[in-house]
Write a structure and sequence with these properties.
mainly alpha, 176 residues
């Protein structure tokens, strides 16, 4: 997606004054420098391009930039700014749903977290960390048997949180 980066992205400038290809390149450069909010601005400027590939890369980059700083809703909007490949669309959808699940869990909205995880599982296989999040959601909803089954599966990967959760779930169902 991104090629050689000019050193010029280290300095501040208004990305609206750049051509769309230059704004796109600047956005990736800023992402490499871990300056995602500035990158999002540059990607936004690149969205004005008439070139479909530049628009797709800009929408993708802007979504990733917003995800990096936890602005999930903005990432979701950015993802709709240009048509993109199904692989990129799936990747962004999975990331957005995972972020929403984590946010719901952290806000003690466990049913909502499970809904987001269910939606995400339709798009992409569930990684172990989200399987553990699902299991803890079940624990918090007083469903220790469901949690136990998931913790057992996740614990086989050596995940420390899964092993800890497995012990908690076993105690909750009276297996300790």
């Amino acid at each position: 997606v991104h090629s050689a980066r000019p050193a010029s992205c280290a300095s501040r400038l208004d990305p609206a004054r750049l051509s769309a290809p230059a704004a796109l390149q600047r956005g990736w450069c800023l992402m490499d420098l871990n300056r995602p909010l500035e990158a999002a601005e540059s990607f936004g400027a690149a969205l004005s391009s008439g070139n479909r590939n530049i628009r797709e890369d800009a929408a993708y980059g802007q979504s990733l930039a917003y995800l990096r700083v936890g602005l999930t809703d903005r990432a979701a909007v950015a993802a709709t700014q240009a048509p993109m490949s199904s692989a990129r669309a799936r990747e962004l959808q999975a990331s957005i749903l995972a972020d929403r699940a984590v946010q719901a869990f952290q806000s003690d909205r466990y049913r909502e977290a499970l809904l987001y995880l269910d939606q995400r599982a339709q798009v992409q296989q569930e990684p172990v960390d989200l399987l553990v999040l699902r299991a803890y959601s079940y624990m918090n909803l007083s469903r220790p048997h469901d949690a136990l089954r998931l913790f057992e599966a996740a614990a086989t990967t050596g995940n420390r949180d899964a092993r800890r959760g497995l012990a908690d779930a076993k105690a909750a169902v009276g297996l300790n």
